[in-house]
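Re: the request from the purification team.
They wanted to know what the chain is likely to look like in 3D before they choose a buffer screen. I agreed to run a prediction and write the result into the notebook, where they can find it.
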Amino acid sequence: MHARLIRLRAQIVKELLCLLRDPKSRAVMLGPPLIQLFVFSFAMTLEVKHIDIALLNHDSGGAAIELVQQIQSSDLVDRVRTAGSERELAEMIDTQQVLASVVIPETFSRDIARGNSGTAQIIVDGRKANAGQIALGYLQTIAGNAATTRRPLSGGETATVRHEFNPNLIYPWYVVPSLAGILVTLVALMVTALSIARERELGTFDQLLVSPCTPSEIIVAKAIPAFLVGTVLASLMMGAAVLLFGVPFTGSFGLLFGCLMVFILSLVGIGLMISSICSTQQQAILGTFAVVVPAIIMSGFATPVENMPVALQWLAQCIPLKHFLIILQGSFLKALPPADVFANAWPMALIAAVTLTLATRLVRSKLQ
């Protein structure tokens, strides 16, 4: 037992030296993820502001004037371009001078004065589908407010919308915790995927063939440095989310940290599987990106998993990032109950057990 601990400690020290001995390696391992956290936190937003709108107004009535004034004073709109004809309006959209256009018919004010619903046409540039749909929602809200001002609803009451857990729709509250999980996924997979592949490329893997080390010891020695790097990086990012970006943390830090360790273990298992299959570091890097990109897309970060085909929904259950993002976002914004935390933690533990077992078998087959 004592000899095994000595061998294991020596291998762990060797792996840590390979990762941390070179100042450039240390900088690349920690610097870019933290820079990406700050850059992407402001770049990745669903807010649409300061866009140009084209306007074709056939009505000179009070309701039409009020609608135009509300559009001009909105934070959404940077500039309202007046069009003189349908052809000019279409040309503005074709040449991407505007994102959307509003056509007010000549009966708009008259219909509202009679107590009916005034109808204005909104044309959106479909080449910018996401921004166009968001701008469409804003313009529909502006038009609805203008119509309500001229013709109040019965009883003088209007419908109100309330956003639970994020009342002001502050997008960094959603983006920053999610980015912490995504960037840790990339770093942990990259570090572990390069571990065995690096030894093969340098020729030192052959020394393991004649060493008394067992496959289990090799896997543990490769896993612990990546586990430590991922844990430190995730702690820095979550600390930055709270202290620098002001994201509220309402859950249990102990539960979140425990789930973080299970999450990194599952990533380490996947990374070691990639590393044991690849022969060079270039192959390991390509293999990592082949896994990371689908994992991010199917994790539910950008699009809901429920909107995917059933087969992809089942496949998403095998992605650790999908479960960890639920825990991470819930711990920050909604004080996720322990039962819900456990419901997303045990799949990660199962993935970690399966991947680490497979990685051990693959390493054993290579050593034999």
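For the purification team: The radius of gyration is 28 Å.
Please add any questions underneath this entry.
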